Amino acid sequence: MREAQTVGAVVPGAARWLGLAAAPTFALMALWTSLAGGTPDVLCMAMQHASPSGGMTVMYLLMSAFHLAPWLRLISH
């Protein structure tokens, strides 16, 4: 029973840190994708004049923005 209490105390702390890790991770992935200048993903390959900073970079930036809530909560306290 004591082990279950310990795990129950650790899980919320780990979830908090994972929530804080999401936004910077996605921001770094957006930066890396943008700077790497890789080929567009398969769905965008039909586009002749696609922007190199489109596709995955935009998706990673949006994911970073959507995961800012834990940071905003931390800053507001």
Question: Please, could you describe this protein's structure?
Answer:
With 77 residues, the protein is mainly α. It has one domain (2-76). The protein has helices at 2-36, 56-66, 69-76. Helix 1 (2-36) runs antiparallel to helix 2 (56-66). The protein is elongated.
Percentage of helical residues? Answer: over 70%
What's the overall average pLDDT, rounded?
A: 77
Oligomer: single chain
Number of domains: 1
Key features?
mainly alpha, elongated, 77 residues, 3 helices
TL;DR of this structure?
70% of the residues lie in helices and 0% in strands. The protein has 77 residues and is mainly alpha-helical.
Topology:
Layout: H1 2-36, H2 56-66, H3 69-76
